[in-house]
# Entry
Amino acid sequence: MPVPAYNTFNEVFDSLDAPDDDSANPFKIELIRPEDFIIQNWPPQPGDYRVFNATKSTALALLQGIHIDKPDLTVLSSKIAISGGITTENLGVEHLVKNVVANPHLRYLVLWGNDIEGHLPGDALLSLFGNGFDKTKRIIGAHGARPLLKNLTESEVSHFRKQIQVIDLIGGRDLSELDKQVELLSKQTVQPYEAGLKVDSVVIQRAEPAKRLKLDPAGYFVIMAMKGKENPLLIEHYSNDGTLKNMIEGKDSASICATLVEKKLISQLDHAAYLGRELAKAELSIISDSKYTQDRAQGESS
# Structure
């Protein structure tokens, strides 16, 4: 597919104004000029990606079934800013858009690989670029199961559509063809966008250890891992006076957790979180043939 020719930056884009969109209730909105871009602060969203040269103009979105071996990735890495997988038409698209628009040096987004059946994140990105989203934040024209972008503002979507040119290589499998397209993009005369856009919807909070331990009125549990048994996970449920009330056995931590919830044997969220962690540890000990020791819950007894 030939790469479209582009005019210079100033001929294509209007001047940016600071956005005032509050449709996703952002608490902080920041415009990032190219000269103020800090490589170490990008990308803002976590995900399955690798950063190469953050001031290059091309980002690579890898769709289903794509694995690039290290030698091939080394060749591509000199020409791209970032590469990463995308698997969903909602949260995956949201994270990608937020990362892309936060870097004013990015001007191209290449979609490569087979689109994922049902979710169709590649189709969602193409539709978002071409059509935007409606008042319900549904991507116009997208065919995936749930293409709703509840965590993007209108400013971010508008910014994405102005800053980025999406290059459709969906269905591509030939690495030499991908390299050729990326090489062509790297030779395009294109300046950084006037500014990147970073919108924070929530404040990141630092996790702290529990200070107080409040006993669950529903009782406590003793977990045992018994490798070799048909149902290797066993959990004993006691009332807080030490009386055995229930015994539940199962093959995996997920089914044990589901049973505890169904039988209403847990009444506190912190207790449920603790049991989920411990059951997952017990299951892993069986898989790895290692010893399991149940940890006490965090905090001092009240």
In short: Residues 9-200 form one domain. The chain has two domains: 9-200, 212-296.
